[in-house]
Design brief:
This protein has two domains: 2-171 and 211-261 and 382-577, 4-Layer Sandwich (Glutamine Phosphoribosylpyrophosphate, subunit 1, domain 1); 279-364, Serum Albumin, Chain A, Domain 1. It is built from 20 helices and 19 strands. The chain has helices at residues 3-19, 47-58, 63-77, 141-152, 157-160, 162-170, 176-181, 191-198, 213-224, 228-231, 233-244, 251-256, 283-294, 299-302, 307-327, 338-341, 344-352, 483-497, 502-507, 528-536; strands at 35-37, 41-44, 87-93, 99-104, 172-173, 209-210, 260-262, 265-269, 272-276, 388-394, 400-406, 464-468, 471-476, 511-512, 520-522, 541-543, 552-555, 562-565, 574-577. The strands form four sheets. A seven-stranded antiparallel beta sheet has the order 1-18-17-13-12-9-8. A seven-stranded antiparallel beta sheet has the order 7-4-3-11-10-2-19. A three-stranded mixed beta sheet has the order 14-15-16. Strand 17 and strand 18 form a beta hairpin. The longest helix is centred in the middle third of the chain and has 21 residues, at 307-327. The protein is globular. The two termini are 28 Å apart. Bound molecules: 6-diazenyl-5-OXO-L-norleucine.
Length: 578
């Protein structure tokens, strides 16, 4: 955290002590102000990507054009998560009131098997689903961005890819932050990654010009003929390269990859309509289920991040995550009781189990009877033959786009495709490699999310658009693995219910609970008294370094002004508009 933010939290932590014992809400005079604009706004994790989006909007593009431009630009300027070799979700709200959701999540290769990450004794091989050629899922990002541009963009692929192509071929100056990210020791294990990001050991430094001629050539090929990536020479090159390294992705895997356009999930909360990510993301369902549970409380009266308020949020998150881990997976493979999970009656029953002052230990948690069928078991699941980034955009016509895209871990599998200049994901780790064994995010998941050929791993990415009277109020999202969902919920509640501006909501210290492990994770910045009070209620509280990266927009309900809140935690991002 930057010094001014540390100071901000220190002061805001002390003021409530003097003013009122109950309210830990920073006064508006202390809060960082959002960036404001009248017509259009782009918020991303990297200033150059934000600029790419704004440039496309100014050239007459709509929010979808800008989103595609940002998506390709992030591959160039933020390779830790921006990607051609990963996957993502794009949620779109059109000015005419319609919403749609593009799923370009990675798929398991056709040769994947449920036990592919287990050794002969049946134990998970550490790192097998995380690093190297076998951890890679079939990438969907190029298909998704191309699909979005063709169907909903205005300017055409060649034009919206220009900023990315220029950034790759002309280069850009590396910040100290990005240069430090390139020191990742695992990148050194893969020759093309070692060459590209670490100059064969002659590491880049802040201020160096970073040019990516191979990537520029790849981007030019995609702009001229996007089918090359999945059906042409590039597809064959990618497949041959992965197989040579010991991976199992084939040209057929790439040829069969398809974007799926889905109906988003919907929720209602205090006059807002929540539009969010459906399976294969768990994000929207967990978010809406948690908000449904919270619907019965007056959170505003309790105050932002007071122990009493946090207690209710934590218990709601615990219950919604319990359902996530048991029921959710790829809808093509698992039957899910989504309508029942999202029903207010079910949430009301869950709420009745929340104790007024005490934590419910996860091991004692019992799902209310009579609402959901038993969770799927292995035999019912069909077997058909930390990194991510989020960006939010609103254009001058009232279209809004919320995109979360990922390589999964930082730099994904760490494997760069030789000759093509881009990294490949390690999304296979989002599956449950073994029932009951936690993945990278500590998620303990059931058979609904077991590995199967062609299946999409369950995600927590939660691109969300919140409407009020049919108009956009918020565009929200973040990376952070399972913590994405609570990050989005916390930002939304802090702003919509507690009245913090969007920048202050993004800045506010985060807290997270995912049922298992039975731990409440908190960022630095909470009052010691708040943490003591949570511990007294029976919570296992663990302070951890800052996480996630909320890149969000709010719309002032009175003036219609757009307010961009970007996250200072990473230190590269910006909100900009006009
Ligand atoms: O889809 C998911 O839920 C994960 N692959 C997201 C990973 C992530 O957010 C890592 N970021 N810090």
């Amino acid at each position: 955290m930057q010094a001014r933010h540390r100071a901000f939290w220190l002061v805001s932590a002390l003021v409530p002590l003097l003013a009122s014992p109950a309210i830990a809400q920073p006064g508006p005079y202390l809060a960082e102000k959002p960036v404001t604009a009248r017509h259009a706004m782009v918020v991303t994790v990297h200033r150059l990507a934000t600029d790419a989006g704004v440039r496309i909007l100014r050239e007459g593009g709509n929010a979808i054009d800008a989103a595609v431009a940002v998506g390709f630009a992030l591959e160039v300027v933020y390779p830790i998560a921006g990607n051609l070799g990963g996957g993502g979700f794009m949620l779109i709200h059109f000015a005419n009131g319609k919403n749609t959701f593009l799923d370009y999540r990675e798929r398991a290769p056709l040769a994947a098997t449920p036990n592919m990450y287990l050794n002969a004794k049946g134990n998970v091989i550490p790192g097998a689903s995380l690093y190297g050629y076998r951890a890679i899922g079939v990438p969907g990002s190029v298909a998704g961005l191309v699909y979005a541009e063709k169907k909903y963009g205005r300017l055409g692929l060649e034009k919206v890819m220009q900023p990315a192509i220029q950034l790759a071929s002309h280069g850009f100056r590396l910040s100290a932050i990005t240069a430090a990210q390139f020191h990742d020791s695992r990148l050194s294990n893969y020759p093309a990654s070692f060459r590209k990001y670490q100059r064969n050991g002659n590491y880049y430094r802040a201020g160096d010009l970073f040019r990516q001629p191979r990537l520029a050539a790849t981007l030019r090929t995609i702009a001229a003929d996007p089918s090359d990536f999945y059906h042409g020479p590039m597809a064959r090159q990618i497949a041959a390269f992965i197989q040579k390294g010991g991976g199992i992705i084939t040209a057929k895997d790439l040829a069969e990859y398809k974007v799926v356009e889905r109906t988003p999930v919907y929720g209602a909360f205090h006059g807002y309509t929540i539009v969010s990510a459906p399976p294969p993301s768990s994000g929207g369902i967990v978010l809406i289920e948690a908000l449904n549970i919270l619907n019965g409380y007056n959170l505003r009266k309790l105050g932002d991040r007071t122990p009493a308020e946090m207690h209710l949020l934590i218990e709601a998150y615990r219950r919604a995550f319990m359902d996530r881990n048991a029921y959710l997976g790829d809808p093509a493979y698992v039957k899910m009781p989504i309508a029942a999970m999202l029903s207010q009656k079910y949430a009301d029953a869950w709420r009745a189990s929340i104790l007024p002052w005490k934590a419910t230990p996860s091991k004692d948690l019992h799902r209310p009877a009579g609402f959901l069928p038993p969770p799927p078991t292995m035999s019912q699941v069909r077997h058909e033959s930390p990194d991510t980034t989020h960006y939010s955009i609103i254009d001058s016509q009232g279209n809004a786009v919320s995109v979360t895209t990922t390589l999964n871990d930082y730099f994904g599998s760490r494997v760069t495709v030789a000759g093509l200049g881009f990294l490949l994901n390690d999304e296979m780790d989002d599956f449950a490699s073994k029932q009951g064994v936690p993945n990278m995010f500590g998620l303990i998941q059931g058979p609904a999310n077991s590995i199967a050929p062609g299946k999409r791993p369950l995600s927590s990415m939660t691109p969300t658009i919140v409407l009020r009277n049919g108009k956009v109020s918020y565009v929200l999202g973040s990376p952070g693995g399972s913590r994405i969902i609570t990050t989005v919920a916390n930002i939304f509640l802090s702003s919509a219910i507690q009245g913090l501006n969007i920048q202050a909501s993004v800045d506010a210290p985060r807290f997270h609970m995912q049922d298992l492990p039975d731990v409440v994770y908190v960022e630095p910045g909470f009052l010691p008294a708040t943490l003591a009070s949570l511990r007294k209620r029976g919570y296992h509280v663990k302070v951890q370094p800052p996480w996630s990266d909320g890149e969000c927009i709010a719309v002032d309900p009175k003036t219609g002004e757009l307010e961009g809140g970007h996250d200072f935690r990473i230190g590269l991002g910006s909100a900009a508009g006009y």
